[in-house]
Amino acid sequence: MDCYKEDMLGPVLLCMQAESLEEAIAIVNRSKHGNGASIFTSSAVYDQKFQNEVENGLVGINVPVPLSLPFSMFNGSEAAFASDLNFCGKAGVQFFTRIKSVVQQWKELPGRRVSFPCPPPSETEISSQEIAMTQPPTYESDVNGKALDKHETICEA
After folding, report:
1. 20 to 30 A from 154, CA-CA: which of 81, 86, 95, 112?
2. Which residues, at least 6 apart from 31, have a Cβ–Cβ distance to it below 8 Å?
3. Range of the domain at 23
4. Number of structural domains, the chain?
5. What GO cellular component is one of the record's annotations (predicted)?
């Protein structure tokens, strides 16, 4: 069968019948263009055996065509992979994604208050002294004995 021997990139559905599950797995694994394979079964045992022993990257259980999702890897055979880049999975997402890093520092702005909801003190049991030590310094505060200028930044690791 030519479809079995060649890498067909068109909409082709090749249906083959096997006498046993072992024979079906052997037929699938013999193909050098093993991109995808499906099995139609009502047996969970056959389902597990097929998906564990078939060497194809795309396996369908009771679906005619196993389609690759954009975030899943292309796991076809080397013979079927005709590019130097894999545009599925992590590599594809990274290629088509513009990564942005955002660094922010929030300082106290005059006339604006930002409140963050906190659980009641009875639940956290933090003393007022501990709360004062965890709050970031304001412009007018004294850090390590040095008064801060409005343009200075404090970084602590």
Report:
1. 112
2. 4, 77
3. 2-96
4. 1
5. mitochondrion
55 vs 75: CA distance, rounded Å: 9
* Cα–Cα distance, 113 to 111 (Å, whole number): 7
Query: pTM for this structure?
Result: 0.44
Q: Which residues of the chain have pLDDT under 50?
A: 79-80, 123-124, 129, 132, 139-143, 148, 151-157
CATH number for the domain that contains residue 60: 3.40.309.10
Q: Is 37 within a domain?
A: yes
Instruction: Pull the structure tokens for residue 55.
Output: 């060497």
Q: In whole angstroms, give the CA distance from residue 67 to residue 78.
A: 18
- The closest of 78, 74, 98 to 87, measured between CA atoms, is 74
Query: Is 36 in a helix, a strand, or coil?
Result: strand
Let me know: does 39 contact 50? Beta carbons within 8 Å: yes
Contact 59, 51 (CB under 8 A): yes
